[in-house]
Amino acid sequence: MKRQQPQRNHFRAHLGIVLGASLIHFVCISWILLRRVEVYSCFEDLDLFVNAFWNTLHGRLFYQFDMQICQLGVHFSPFLFLILPLYALLPDPRTLLLLQAAAASFAAVPFFLFSRKMLKSSLPAVLLSLAYLFYPPLNRSLLSPVSGFHEITFALPFVFLLAWAMLERRWVALGAFLILLLSVKENVALGVAAWGLWLLLRKRWRLGGLFVAGGVLWFCVAFFVIMPCLQGKGSFTPGALTFVPAVSLPWQEGGCSSFFRSCLRLATDPLRWRFIAEMLTPVWLGVLGCPEAMIAAAPIWMADLLDRRESMRTVYRWHHMGIIPFLFLGNAYALCRLQRGMDRWTQKRKRTAWDREKSYSLAAALILVSCLLSLFFMPFSFPDRDAAEISYRMNWDKAQRVDKVLSQIPPEASVLASFNVLYRLAGRKHVGWFRHAHRRKWDYVVWDAELKKPAPPNFQAFLSQNGYQLIWREGGFLVFKRF
User: For residue 202, what pLDDT is reported?
Assistant: First the structure.
């Protein structure tokens, strides 16, 4: 008991460090996000989820205004039902951003528990957890205004919890975390199946078979049965693949030959490979020491390489969140493999054995330093068309006056608004972007010309033909009302 007491105290101290670091990370990320909401920065797709949650609370199950279907038909994410009660308590777009930041920040805690069990030492687990919190693609994806809110971020803690339950042989917890992970998004199931292949390579036959079978079955049922029904089609059609970020269906335009040419062009795009290098450089040890861990991330890697959208060429986006946990699991496995190699080398040379905790801590410290250096010195790429959205901030005093004007718009009124305003107005039945102008007679039109996006085609003609009059203007911020 006397020997176990210091170890227990060390564990509590190290766990407290990770919890404290996670809390600081959450507070910093949250403060930046809340400030950006207050000055009307852009948050991609946040308006869709705000509108979907509002509609659910008012009797229309996750109905979203863009595609005018249930959001679960776009991406099958039953996990949204767990977020719904929290949003009902505080129906505000900032609630969703804070929940997303909490999931990413406090995922460091289960990763610490997994690393400590794997490495049988707390100090290197602390260093690896800090490296995760400083990992540049994670923070840039959370903070980028063009990332907004997306459910894939909630996969981060569940991947680490699942890995921890696997090591601890807590099978009930493993089943619960597996179901929660699968419920985050339908394409996460492909990552689970790929994780099963990794387990099969490590001769974990039962677990590997469970992951492969469960992942494939969940994806097939969700993608080929449930999502088409929620889209109102009743059965699967090839066009449904356009709802999956991983597929853009180039073969619909020019047949199979066009498809393969497009895939080859996308897979050899230097900017996409630059993005991959930017993700792998800070976690070089896991890439070199445990390359098979990349198998679990392979479906998302292929999706990113073969997607035709410009946004897939940057680490500012959310699509790559599913890759991050597997990179750090690979780091922990690589440390174990490195130590085993060093033990064999010392035995063969008949030299003094390396201190396990010191060697682990040194390697983990190198990973932490790599993440810190990458955070400050690596030039992260993003498409030029996103530059204006990333840099846009409204003057603080002007934002306060805009708040007062928008608060006067009746909650039952229909609103057509620009990208950086709509998530503040999405808690109503009828909202839309300017590409939705043809859908109905909108009561209000809100346009922020200072966002430096081109005005919608025939914008002035649309206003004059539908009887809109300017009721408020400050600089480039315009509010019109139909009389």
Answer: 85
Instruction: Identify the residue whose tokens are 């490590």.
Output: 202
The amino acid occupying position 368 is: L
Main-chain dihedrals φ then ψ at residue 68, nearest 5 degrees: 55, 40
Instruction: Retrieve residue 395's tokens.
Output: 């003057």
Assigned token pair, 360: 């682990």
Counting other chains too, the contacts that 460-465 makes at CB distance below 8 Å and 24 or more residues apart are: 462/437
Q: What mean pLDDT comes out for the span 234-242? A: 48
Backbone angles phi, psi at 458, to 5 degrees: 60, 35
User: Going by DSSP bridges, is the β-strand pair 63-64/431-432 parallel, antiparallel, or unpaired?
Assistant: unpaired
CA angle 456/458/464 to nearest 5° reads 115
Measured on CA atoms in the order 99, 182, 259, 301, is the torsion positive or negative? Answer: positive
pLDDT in tens, 72-83: 988 899 999 999
The neighbour count for residue 234, using CB atoms within 10 Å, is 8
Query: 266-316, pLDDT tens digit by residue?
Result: 667 777 777 777 788 888 888 888 888 888 888 877 776 666 665 555 545
DSSP β-ladder status, 415-417 and 63-64: unpaired
Nearest one of 31, 32, 74, 35 to 51, comparing CA atoms: 74
Q: What is the pTM of this model?
A: 0.88
Measured between alpha carbons, how far is 400 from 386 in angstroms, rounded to an integer? 25
